[in-house]
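LAB NOTEBOOK - FOLDING QUEUE
OPERATOR: T.R.
BATCH SIZE: 2
PURPOSE: Compare the predicted structure-token outputs for two unrelated chains run back to back under identical settings.
PRIORITY: normal
REVIEWER: second-year student, initials M.K.

ITEM 1
FIELD SEQUENCE / FIELD STRUCTURE:
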Amino acid sequence: MANLRELRNRIKSVNSTKKITKAQELIATSRITKAQARVEASLPYAQEIRHVIDRLASASSLDHPMLREREGGNRAAILVVSSDRGMAGGYNYNVFKKTAELRSMLEAKGYEVVLYVSGNKGLGYYKFRGEAIAGAWTGFSQDPGYKETHDMRRHLIDAFEAGSAGTAKWRDGLFGPEGEPVQGFDQLHVVYTEFESMLTQTARAHQLLPIEPVVEVDEIDLDEDILHRSEGEVAPDYEFEPDADTLFAALLPKYVSRGLFAMLLEAAASESASRRNAMKSATDNATALVKDLSRVANQARQAQITQEITEIVGGAGALAESGESD
């Protein structure tokens, strides 16, 4: 009877856990939709600032610290984008693994690596291992906002502009004495999770600063109508006030800041998708476990009933035999 009681208690416990995982799955599913909507809502601004930057780049000298490798630079920063909560499957593990690979590569090149962390899980991970952290920002992994992430984005840009030979002013989230300037760095890498689909999220390591040039090759159509289609088409000419170099220098940090914020939005969608997949798997496993336990409990109950019937029949037979002997 004790064995059957234990099985029933375990079934009850698994069902309670199943209710929690199912609720987490539904919550994560709703958050994926909201996160995707935020990514789509940010696209018009992203496309417009990219368009303006492209026009300015074609008219400026492109002589800006954010566009070239710093000579003698030996300090690289890594921003690790993790989650604030767990129950997200291998989401954080993949980010930490990719960070370790990137860190080993940078150290092999002779760089001093500085760690910045976004998310409670990353903060706890590196603190537990005794790793030095230059700064950490938490509380917005699932719903990053421009205001909440301002200090993080502004510090990373300022510290890169200062370089390893300079300092940036202290901001909230940085470790060390409050108010004291913080040493800068010469490279900025971001490790985050890219949202590919509801089932696939991939950890990426991206060099944010200095900006790596992207060369796009346009395909040239050489059919018979090319002369007729190109006839009369003139590339637009722009006049900038103030000059293109001044505007380029003012807008480039905003462009980088927007790029970093876009990565945080991608990571938020990936976190919800990873948590949804993990909770769905946990719910399915709980359902299968309850089914198996119920079968074992039924077998135990049937065996107990069979034993009781056997004992009753045996007792009745014994009584009958004793009556005949009398």
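ITEM 2
FIELD SEQUENCE / FIELD STRUCTURE:
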Amino acid sequence: MNTDSHAGLIARLAHAVQVSTKEAEAAFYDALQTLSTGARVENYLTLFAVRRAADEIRARQRSNPVDPL
């Protein structure tokens, strides 16, 4: 997997869900690994990984809301 080509996707993911790049990167690669296991066609794996990572981050944010100041 080419991490250089994923850097832009990860940065946009982090911005979209308002988390650090490090957190977005971890969620993205976790989702990508899960989806690629047993995948026969890999054309859209990065797209699906971004969507899954965003969904998982948003779910965590909903379950652990931050109190506003």
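REVIEWER COMMENT (ITEM 2): The first helix runs from residue 3 to 17.
FOLLOW-UP: none requested
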